[in-house]
Design goal:
The chain is mostly helical. It is built from four helices and two strands. The termini are far apart.
C-alpha cells in the first residue's frame, strides 16, 4: 500500500500559529467584551473611566494580534509542500473575529 504525498506533508508552522492565535485571542476578546458589558450595566460607561480605557485598549490590541494572525495564515497558505488546514482555519477564524469586533465597534459608535 502506497502512502499518498499528502500523508507525508507536515502542517505549516505559520498555520498552526495563526490557528492558536485565533483561539486564544477569540476567548480573550469574549472575556473583554463581557467586562465591557458588565461595566456598562453598572453605569460606568464614560470616557474618563480608567477601566473602560483599558477595555478599549485590550480590544484594539486583540485586533492587532488578529491582523498578525491573518498574516501568518496567508504565509502558511503560500508555503509549498505543507498541509494548509490550520492556515485556512486560522485565516477564517481571525477574519471572523476582525469582522465581528469591527462590527461591534461600528454598532457602538452608531448607538452613542
Amino acid at each position: 500500500m502506497e502512502n499518498s504525498t499528502n500523508d507525508l506533508l507536515k502542517h505549516s508552522g505559520f498555520g498552526i500559529s495563526s490557528f492558536v492565535i485565533s483561539l486564544v485571542i477569540g476567548v480573550g476578546e469574549i472575556f473583554v467584551i463581557g467586562i465591557a458589558a458588565f461595566l456598562g450595566a453598572q453605569g460606568q460607561m464614560s470616557e474618563e473611566n480608567t477601566a473602560m480605557m483599558v477595555v478599549g485598549l485590550a480590544i484594539m490590541a486583540g485586533l492587532m494580534i488578529n491582523l498578525a494572525g491573518v498574516g501568518l495564515a496567508i504565509a502558511g497558505i503560500c508555503q509549498k509542500n505543507k498541509k494548509k488546514m490550520f492556515s485556512i482555519l486560522g485565516l477564517i477564524f481571525n477574519g471572523v473575529l476582525i469582522l465581528g469586533i469591527v462590527g461591534l465597534i461600528i454598532i457602538g459608535m452608531m448607538v452613542s
